[in-house]
Amino acid sequence: MKFKPSIKPYRGAAGGWGSLEATTRYVFDSKQPLKNLRNLLRVNKARGFDCPGCAWGDDNHSTFSFCENGAKAVSWEATRNAVEPAFFAAHSVSKLLQQSDYFLEYQGRLTHPMRYDAVSDRYHPISWPAAFALIAQHIHQMDNPSQIELYTSGRTSNEASYVYQLFGRMLGTSNFPDCSNMCHEASGIGLKQSIGVGKGTIRMQDFEQADAIFVFGQNPGTNHPRMLHSLKQAVSRGARIVSFNTLRERGLERFTDPQNPLQMLTPTSSPISSAYFQPNLGGDLAAVRGIVKALLETHRQRLAEGQAGLFDRVFIEQHCIGVEEYLAQVDASAWSHITQQSGLSESQLRQAAAIYQSAKRVICTWAMGITQHKHSVATVREITNLQLLFGQLGKPGAGLCPVRGHSNVQGNRTMGIDEKAPKALLDSLAQRFGFTPCREAGHNTVEALEAMLRGEVKVLLALGGNLAAAAPDTKRTAQALRNCELTVHISTKLNRSHLITGKEALILPALGRTELDLQASGPQFITVEDSFSMVHASEGIGKPLSENQRSETAIVCGIADAVLGSETLDWLALADDYSLIRDHIQATLPGFDNFNQRCEQPGGFYLGNAAAELRFATPSGKAQFSAAALPETLRAHPTAELAPFTLQTLRSHDQYNTTIYGLDDRYRGVYGQREVLFIHPQDLAELGLQEGELVEIETLWHDGVVRKVSGFKLVSYAIPRGNLAAYYPETNPLVPLTSFGDGTGTPTSKSIPVTIRRCASAPAWRIA
Ligand SMILES: Nc1nc2c(c(=O)[nH]1)N[C@H]1C(S)=C(S)[C@@H](COP(=O)(O)OP(=O)(O)OC[C@H]3O[C@@H](n4cnc5c(=O)[nH]c(N)nc54)[C@H](O)[C@@H]3O)O[C@H]1N2
Ligand SMILES: Nc1nc2c(c(=O)[nH]1)N[C@H]1C(S)=C(S)[C@@H](COP(=O)(O)OP(=O)(O)OC[C@H]3O[C@@H](n4cnc5c(=O)[nH]c(N)nc54)[C@H](O)[C@@H]3O)O[C@H]1N2
Ligand SMILES: [Mo]
Q1: What's the DSSP call for residue 307?
Q2: pLDDT grade for 601, boundaries at 50, 70 and 90
Q3: CA distance 626 to 632
Q4: Among 156, 407, 461, 658, residue to substitute to test ligand 2 (most atoms within 8 Å of Cβ)
Q5: Which tens digits make up the pLDDT trace of 191-213?
Q6: Do 296 and 302 meet the contact criterion of CB atoms below 8 Å apart?
Q7: CATH 2.40.40.20 for domain 638-758
Q8: From-to residues of CATH 3.40.228.10 in the chain
């Protein structure tokens, strides 16, 4: 790995030899290259394990289906480096806290259950039964079930998620904060309101038939690299890709397929986007409004000339309600408001409208650039409005596609990891397991942290993830964790959440996706669901690093057994044989008939999507246009109006959320460093600052709390004026816990009102 910091604009296409070189480097760095090459050949195959990277679907056409960043994820997990009891004996928790996130995870895999001892400020080994007993003791001491929070991160399997939520509900709580609350919540909520189902309506093969694909607020070159194959193939068929992204992202511009030998040997690359628009942060609602305004104008013109209109009248009449109110709202949105808020000119929006109009089948995809704002639900619904006007649902090659993050985050929700679970799920759990589940809504992630801050939470259980680093307002989040009596993390690698402990703390080492999971009844597989509602089996092959690691499912069952006892359910039998869990899933959730048998199907099975079949589970039974007015301001609070800049926090090419694989961000030309701040060159000039100078970034918020990070190096970049970008999680101290999306509770990580000023030194980012 290169560590000498440098900035060198990247001139190549995304993918290509750079990608192959990086893949090889990570495979070798894992210290077991052969095993990992064998591992990679088994990723996303009919028999093999699901890539622990992103939630993109599997393309059964190619010989192997993994990407550079999937290779990083696999090699990172399947490392021979181990964090053993001797490591913890040698390092106090306060010392480890001084280290970077990169250092912590790089130490390797956790191998033993460990218990924190406040006196020596160290973790010491503990046996599994003693760890379970400690958890049971704390839970039994709670005054009521709302004093526990059960956090989940989206890599967790369906089987582990299902038993986890069942355990929590039997305890009597609905407190299931999860990573999704910080991620695609707005997609789930917005789509549910508009079309009755909170999931995407398309399948992978729809990319083969689309005439146009509109990509909003997403960086697939880094975060969903296998999507570039689908985009490239679409382009070569003549489909048009239209990108809306605040930054110029190389993966949306040009791509060389590292799995295409011909393209690798010739100096060619495929252009991706036919048109590239750079809206202001949060400006997409206005941008889509502008596109519709232009289309509405043409529609009316056509009607006035006695021709057929542009919109799909039959579809709208048969399947939708609320179109008049919506179009009235479009009329009420002035071009001046639209252009000022979107940051795009009328002619740019008319150009996008013209491409949309010329396509019969359109797919709209989106990710965090849409969902981590104050007006995210309205924006998701506005994209849906556009698609409804043209009847782009229920036909091949068209539809709505929120591209999920974690590889099984969609499956977690399907399994009932949901602080506002649907009534049908609670009814069927009550019936099958004979208990009375809590019917009140539980806490989402922000609400859980607030409750912890108020001292109302005794126990935090975390099934994967890294809450301390992933959550906003780093200092307050740290205080929230410290307020707990007991914090428990089921994890594969050491991370910051293990070091910011409750009064007591446990680390429970879990097996990863790539590893053989041997239980009493034999080797087990688990199942996951991708962004396209395909459920499939995943079976690890690697020998676990330590006999003391346990599967997530076995750990959750062990906890449930210790806390609730075997009278409630034979939890340990479920851990012995996961097919019994799948029987329970089949009996309590729709779409899982013959679950165990259907897992054998190569490529898995499709859960179905009612909206894609034009059945809308909304109160009216129809797709519901949303008629939101354009907000007066994009700022989350009036006091923030004074902020000269809006900052987005995003991922570099060498990270998986809080897991930092390396310090390069190749496509953006950043090497050997992460504390950089992307800024427009004219903004630099106006501030009298130079590229390479260090600045401090401070949030303008109304609660009197100082939120600052310093030592960020200015990098001149193609970004709209007044907008800034920097990497997460280093910038999480800047995101106020009280700044979240309307109706979602999702921290507004893509629109933080900030000011910047020159600073002298570069104190590294640390959580005290
Ligand atoms: N390798 C790798 N893969 C991953 C992850 C990872 O960290 N590493 N994370 C996984 C997870 S959990 C998720 S949720 C996804 C995240 O996938 P992305 O959503 O692609 O992730 P971000 O890096 O947050 O990038 C947001 C993109 O939206 C743009 N953007 C930001 N704000 C706006 C806006 O207001 N409007 C528009 N039009 N564009 C905007 C940014 O410039 C950036 O290109 O990826 C998943 N896959
Ligand atoms: N400022 C800002 N904040 C953000 C975001 C942003 O864009 N900006 N993005 C948000 C988003 S989209 C998300 S999804 C969240 C992510 O939040 P989380 O899901 O909580 O965080 P991760 O970094 O994915 O979790 C990494 C840890 O998971 C553990 N782990 C990895 N694999 C496994 C496994 O197989 N089993 C178990 N048990 N543990 C495992 C490892 O110990 C590792 O350290 O962050 C959110 N926070
Ligand atoms: Mo995510």
Answers
A1: S
A2: confident
A3: 17
A4: 658
A5: 999 999 999 999 999 999 999 99
A6: no
A7: yes
A8: 189-403
